[in-house]
């Protein structure tokens, strides 16, 4: 019996047993019980959605130019990549769970690269490469040079993610932005992407164990864009790191060559590179796939030259940890 239990018992033993005191005593017990229940529920909810040791931090975004993508800093840290067998449903290409160390902080786009972002690049460089794009129902559409991203077969606004661009073209965009700003922009590695998507969580989704409703854009996510089209970026709340659309909307191309599983995947945050690689890795799921694919561990592949109406990208910007102008949040990783 602990001290909190002894106090009311002692009061009951010394109090005059009148009809007035008993209701008061009952009220004290009820109040104490209510506080205990609230505390347990609060702790349970926190534990369910917040892994041990995670400390949420308010992200601070920055831009290198007025019309550059908004970037959010990520701290160095350690996390578990992939999905455990207890996570169901899941896919075998998420095996096994590996511990990855991110040695250096970096910044990643708060949003997917938009049509408006791409239009600046296309105008500045005279980009007119794309002549074909695979539509969401599987057919391949032919286009006049440069028109695929403007007419991807779905209705879009200028704030929707750009689609119908290839992995090679996404890398060219990153090179262009690097030259324009004097900073190093590139596609994220697969580990950097998942680290940012999880933001300290270990649950199937960035927001918890259950899919919920209207938290993302996928076929069955409960949004008005489900299996119809992309959504304007930022249409859903951000994850714990301040990043939007890390689940659903469009598959996001990363730097890595696609591996069939994680047995040989890099464990230091670097990209997987294979001589003669033809397929890049996709992460995050899209507007036309089921919820299985919008989990934080979900992976897929795309030919490096392919363009699809459900595939886009976001960028990483390398940062110097000593740069005091960029606020790097601190996470206590488990």
How does this structure look, described?
The chain is α+β, with helices and mostly antiparallel strands and 334 residues long. The protein folds into 2 domains: 3-49; 62-318, Alpha-Beta Complex (paralog of FGE (formylglycine-generating enzyme)), CATH 3.90.1580. The chain is 23% helix and 15% strand. The chain has helices at residues 3-14, 21-49, 115-125, 167-181, 190-198; strands at 61-62, 71-74, 77-81, 98-102, 106-109, 132-134, 140-142, 185-186, 251-257, 279-283, 299-303, 311-312, 316-318. It has a 5-stranded antiparallel beta sheet. Strands 11-10-9-12 form a 4-stranded mixed beta sheet. It is globular and about 45 Å long.
What's a concise summary of this model?
This protein is α+β, with helices and mostly antiparallel strands. The protein has two domains: 3-49; 62-318, paralog of FGE (formylglycine-generating enzyme).
């Amino acid at each position: 019996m602990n001290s909190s239990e002894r106090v009311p018992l002692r009061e009951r033993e010394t109090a005059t047993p009148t009809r007035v005191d008993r209701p008061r005593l009952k009220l004290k017990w009820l109040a104490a019980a209510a506080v205990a229940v609230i505390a347990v529920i609060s702790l349970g909810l926190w534990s369910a959605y917040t892994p041990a040791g995670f400390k949420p931090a308010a992200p601070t975004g920055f831009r290198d130019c007025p019309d550059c993508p908004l970037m959010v800093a990520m701290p160095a840290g350690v996390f578990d990549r992939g999905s455990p067998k207890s996570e169901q449903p899941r896919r075998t290409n998420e095996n096994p769970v590996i511990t990855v160390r991110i040695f250096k902080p970096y910044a990643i786009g708060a949003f997917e690269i938009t049509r408006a972002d791409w239009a600046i690049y296309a105008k500045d460089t005279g980009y007119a490469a794309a002549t074909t794009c695979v539509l969401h129902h599987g057919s391949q559409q032919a286009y006049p040079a440069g028109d695929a991203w403007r007419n991807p077969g779905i209705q879009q606004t200028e704030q929707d993610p750009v689609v119908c661009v290839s992995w090679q073209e996404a890398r060219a965009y990153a090179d262009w932005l690097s030259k324009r700003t004097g900073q190093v922009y590139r596609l994220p590695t697969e580990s950097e992407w998942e680290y940012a998507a999880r933001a300290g969580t270990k649950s199937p989704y960035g927001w918890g164990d259950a899919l919920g409703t209207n938290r993302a854009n996928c076929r069955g996510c409960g949004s008005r864009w489900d299996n119809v089209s992309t959504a304007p970026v930022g249409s859903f709340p951000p994850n714990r790191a301040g990043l939007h659309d890390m689940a659903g909307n469009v598959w996001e191309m990363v730097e890595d060559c696609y591996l069939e599983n994680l047995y040989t995947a890099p464990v230091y945050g670097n990209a997987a590179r294979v001589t003669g690689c033809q397929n890049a890795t996709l992460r995050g799921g899209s507007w036309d796939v089921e919820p299985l694919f919008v989990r934080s561990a979900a992976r897929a592949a795309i030919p490096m030259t392919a363009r699809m109406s459900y595939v886009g990208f976001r960028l990483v910007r390398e940062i110097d940890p000593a740069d005091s102008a960029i606020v790097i949040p601190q996470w206590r990783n488990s």
